[in-house]
């Protein structure tokens, strides 16, 4: 078990050694450790190793600020220019929070952001200010889902997250439009496991629980929420996410099919560097601009209580609210430290050694 | 088969005879017939008979305007005062469209709206202006869904609809957070049918396809999207809809449990009239405030084409986009007329006769 702050310092030092400045590195490191603390261990410090090649070969832009392509007050568009998506999203959420307090609501679309990491990790900072926050992204070059009734990949997994203040533990939603997230699939492949349900279809459209068929030819696809029975629901959500992210940022599938990327920082040509790029859409709404935070939380608190008070189907599994586990996990990690998922520290150690960054000491007695 | 305009005139006359003024009646009638033309026959003219008791006994407020409780430009709150939800939503969408053109985005929360009818029917008018529109509502007194893992009703079906311009046929999404809509269940009960899948759980939490158990004691519940396997997804969406509608409008479950309703038009006490009331949340976004409609539609058109070009699982069922059937159905109905779902005209005839409103003539040769 490690101290939360030690892990942030440790990973920040690695990111700095690889070329990010202190401000960017510390924002990114804090969000990675937050993700681990919230239980999103596929999107926490695991990303240090995942992002490192792109940081080292320049596919992630390490320095500078996003270009402001449009700013109308309540709506903003940035070109993220391949900067860290984690850092960009955090910066955009801060701006959107400020603007939401002024206009009541603010939407920001970002084109060409590098990987955004764990979406839920951004939310507690917003809900603690009494704000409703939404963040969603798509990855046009990484399609995993076929349209409902189809065989060919046309959509990415399209995660979206929503944070809702309740006056107590917030409601934190983080879900993909596919039955499960792509990173879960990668973990099951790594661990030689089947998917818990028939959440995949093979290249002929047959249901399967074998995650390896997403990566071997002829490739299968990850099913939308609702699967073969009512997968129009997940398909609908995916279309909505792609329209908001790609349409409003002006960066998406249309650029890939035409083998160009908008903007100019990579010379207008698609290259490997765009493959992990995604457009991001952020929206922050201030209940104070409606009938006030108190009126808002009076309803959301009641909603939470109604759900919690529902008798559970299985006596030993009380009804939960989304985000409670992650939020309390984060609180506990800051107080007493956190364990990392097996293999994560082992992946980072060679990188730390290469850069001469000292490993954090495990907490005494752990 | 009837002419679209004849059906609008006919149903508007009935609504006027029952006490609504010409403006309100014609807006509501046009949206009812639009819903039928788009294939939402549970939310079209069928609602004439469904709304009539509330119109006749005063549970729907027939005259007046909503009270403006808050107006910050890009955010607005109305008290709908039990006025027709169809009329209120249409009016709010018009205002939101105007404001979105000014601010880039506009969100409007409405408390105490009577039934809003078919959400998808509102969308074409917005997408034709090149706007993205979202409309969602909940009905705090009409809970059908238990939280994921629970037995007791805590959430309504929470429909939401999103319209997305593409430069051609728009993407029109209209879905509930339960596996299917509540009105579909009512129709299957009426017709003595089972649900197409195991979309219901009984009072003990067992899966069922018998829709009657939603209405007989001990009552079952309609499952969230994802069912027993991954129903946290539908549960997440439902929480989001209830927070936006009830939280931002300041009218929701908290008012029912405390046996009061906010505002004053019904004396501050809950009564039968509130039972069909719901808060509504509307959001309109103008792509012109981002990188322009052309840049937006370049991406959404590509998205539509990618989906359509996917090989279908079943050769005879090409991949469809949500909204295409409804949009083309509406276009066709305006050109050549429409058939009504069996039983709908039969339900209206006694009402028309009671008010002395002449029935529309079927189109020649039909």
From TrEMBL, chains A, B:
It comes from Pseudovibrio japonicus. InterPro entries: Mal/L-sulf/L-lact_DH-like_ah, Mal/L-sulf/L-lact_DH-like_NADP, Mal/L-sulfo/L-lacto_DH-like_sf, Malate/L-lactate_DH-like. Belongs to the LDH2/MDH2 oxidoreductase family. SUPFAM superfamilies: L-sulfolactate dehydrogenase-like. It holds the Pfam family Ldh_2. This is Lactate dehydrogenase. Keywords: Oxidoreductase.
């Amino acid at each position: 078990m490690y101290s939360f702050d030690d892990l942030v310092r440790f990973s920040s030092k690695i990111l700095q050694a690889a070329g990010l400045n202190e401000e960017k590195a510390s924002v990114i490191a804090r969000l990675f450790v937050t993700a681990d603390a919230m239980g999103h261990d596929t999107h926490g410090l695991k990303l240090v190793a995942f992002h490192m090649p792109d940081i080292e070969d320049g596919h992630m832009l390490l320095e500078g600020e996003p270009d402001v392509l449009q700013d109308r007050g309540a709506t903003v568009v940035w070109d993220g220019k391949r900067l860290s998506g984690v850092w960009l999203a955090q910066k955009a959420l801060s701006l959107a929070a400020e603007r939401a307090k002024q206009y009541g609501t603010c939407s920001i679309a970002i084109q060409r952001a590098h990987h955004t990491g764990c979406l839920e990790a951004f939310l507690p900072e917003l809900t603690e200010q009494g704000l409703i926050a939404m963040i969603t992204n798509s990855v046009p070059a990484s399609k995993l889902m076929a349209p409902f009734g189809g065989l060919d990949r046309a959509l990415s997994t399209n995660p979206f997250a929503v944070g809702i203040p309740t006056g107590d533990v917030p409601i934190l939603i983080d879900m993909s439009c596919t039955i499960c997230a792509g990173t879960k699939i990668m973990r099951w492949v790594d661990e030689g496991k089947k998917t818990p349900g028939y959440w995949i279809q093979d290249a002929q459209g047959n249901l399967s629980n074998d995650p390896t068929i997403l990566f071997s030819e002829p490739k299968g696809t990850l099913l939308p929420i609702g699967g073969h029975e009512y997968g129009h629901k997940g398909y609908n959500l995916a279309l909505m996410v792609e329209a908001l992210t790609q349409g409003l940022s002006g960066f998406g599938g249309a650029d890939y099919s035409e083998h160009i990327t908008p903007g100019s920082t990579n010379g207008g040509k698609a290259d490997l560097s765009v493959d992990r790029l995604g457009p991001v859409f952020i929206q922050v709404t201030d209940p104070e601009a409606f009938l006030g935070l108190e009126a808002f939380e009076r309803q959301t608190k009641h909603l939470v209580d109604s759900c919690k008070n529902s008798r559970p189907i299985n006596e030993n599994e009380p009804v939960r609210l989304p985000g409670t586990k992650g939020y309390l996990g984060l609180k506990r990690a800051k107080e007493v430290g956190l364990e990392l998922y097996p293999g994560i520290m082992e992946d980072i150690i060679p990188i730390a050694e290469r850069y001469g960054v000292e490993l954090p000491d495990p907490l005494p007695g752990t």
